[in-house]
Write a structure and sequence with these properties.
alpha+beta, NADH Oxidase, 7 helices, about 40% helix, binds flavin mononucleotide
Length: about 190
């Protein structure tokens, strides 16, 4: 698939079949993510891949930590549902790799680099015939999720990506985009 086709035909989808992609395919997708641009070559992205019955184990750890902190049962149920909706989930986090990474400027640059890595990952998954669902929301912000993944207190989970194969009954999703909003300042005749 050429890059323009990949960009235009990738769609966020969340109805997965039960089949888990092979580990070597997942490794290839994650490796592709790491070719993203990143200022000062900080490579701030970290990936936590959870598959198969390990999803249940991770959901148990997060849910019981949430229960201990008095979080409502709905939050615990939601964590479990989000992890179980696909055969495979990749959490992408932004690591604080040195003291300079605590500055606001570096934090923004490192966050932007992580998002660029996520787009690479999504396009690579599309090339491999997988679908992906991008999610942010409450779960990635819980300290209990961060702790369960073994992240440092200053590390930030940027996204939770569910991956797998498209379920036969998955609704199709129309591509829709407005025309680009561009101000052209282009020499005449060029
Ligand atoms: C930063 C970011 C956060 C997102 N978070 C969620 C989310 O929490 N839940 C969700 O259903 N979709 C989420 N999405 C997916 C978007 O809803 C999706 O990309 C959008 O509908 C456009 O569809 P497309 O990706 O197929 O072009 C997120 C996307 C981005 C870029």
């Amino acid at each position: 698939m050429d890059v323009y086709t990949a960009i235009r035909t990738r769609r966020d989808m969340e109805t997965f079949s039960d089949e888990c992609p092979p580990q070597d395919v997942v490794a290839r997708i994650v490796e592709a993510a790491t070719w993203a641009p990143n200022h000062r070559l900080t490579e701030p992205w970290r990936f936590y891949v959870v598959a198969g019955d390990r999803r249940e184990a991770l959901a148990d750890v997060i849910a019981s930590a949430l229960a201990e902190s008095g979080e409502a049962e709905g939050a615990q149920r939601s964590v479990r549902a989000k992890l179980m909706r696909a055969p495979l989930t990749i959490f992408v986090s932004q690591a604080v790799t040195d003291d300079a990474a605590r500055s606001e400027e570096r934090a923004i640059e490192d966050y932007a680099a992580c998002v660029a890595a996520i787009q690479n990952l999504l396009l690579a998954a599309h090339e491999e015939g997988l679908i992906a669902h991008y999610s942010t929301g409450a779960m990635i912000g819980y300290p209990q999720t961060r702790n369960a993944l073994g992240l440092g207190p200053d590390d930030r989970i940027v996204a939770m990506l569910n991956l797998g194969y498209r379920h036969a009954d998955a609704p199709s999703k129309e591509g829709r985009r407005n025309a680009p909003i561009v101000t052209w300042d282009w020499p005449s005749g060029a």
